[in-house]
Amino acid sequence: MITESYDVALRELRAGGIVALPTETVYGLAADIRNPQAIIKIFETKMRPEFDPLIVHVGDIADVIRVVDDWPPLAQKLAETFWPGPLTMVLRRQSNINPMITSGLETVAVRLPANPKTRTLIRDLGAPVAAPSANRFGHTSPTTAAHVDAEFSGEILVLDDGPCQVGIESTVIRINADKIQVLRPGAVTAEDLARFAIVETVKGSVETPGHLRHHYMPAIPLVILPNVRALTQPVYDGIRLRLQKTILHPAWMELPDDPVLAARLLYANMRAAAAASDVNCLLLAYPFHKRRANLWAGISDRLEKASTIIV
Predict the structure, then answer these.
(1) Where is the domain boundary, 143, 168, 201?
(2) What CA–CA distances, in Å, run from 16 to 35, 56, 110, 257?
(3) In CA terms, which of 12, 175, 234, 244 is 20 to 30 Å from 131?
(4) How far is Cα 251 from Cα 60, in angstroms, rounded to an integer?
């Protein structure tokens, strides 16, 4: 159920419900962190395994002390530069944080989202919210209210504030002494972070959402080729056999050459292409070898995990 009413969304959260909230990255499925039953609803509704931690969203920087036990000077510098915005920091948690939120880890992932309506709602609620992406576990993330409504067949309240402007999930980092470890790339890039400290990339950390090999996947298989010319007859036949399809009915998915637009449209284009009639496979020409830096790193990460086959 889609609403534009801020008051309706706030009442639902106060009553212990879950609400899909807009952020600049993707829509998140939010619950009051003080309500254990509401946190359970997130996991049940998303069909999310309990080993995958949730990101806590705060209404302002001062709220961080309600969530984390340690706030190093480097974290303060990064917050002053990139918050509100698409940066999540993994830090030592407060002891009273519900262990379901952190998957039993001693750390918690926290960020201050840029969407003004959501920040105000969190402040009026009087507590941070836990909010993973508002989709079934492993599926393509939603960047519009309509995506959420379709994903959950209208059963979830969605606060509509238009399309998300970033379009991929936040960058997740961990601060390790004087180093910044990137656990998940995103719109705040390694190049941006390198202005503040040495940056390392860490893959597969259990401290960040989206660390599994397969994630963000569309409703039908996504096959990624280095270029259009790579789709020769032998490659086509090989794809067909690997997908166990007698006949392929592919649709080409497209992305702009501008990485800002490509990130913004990634999930929307993926959903639209997969929804076309009589299509059982998506094809995308995407040169991974040329797109490992800056914002392309986050886009490449999502496509690697969303793909069934990379040729």
Answers:
(1) 201
(2) 7, 16, 21, 43
(3) 175
(4) 43
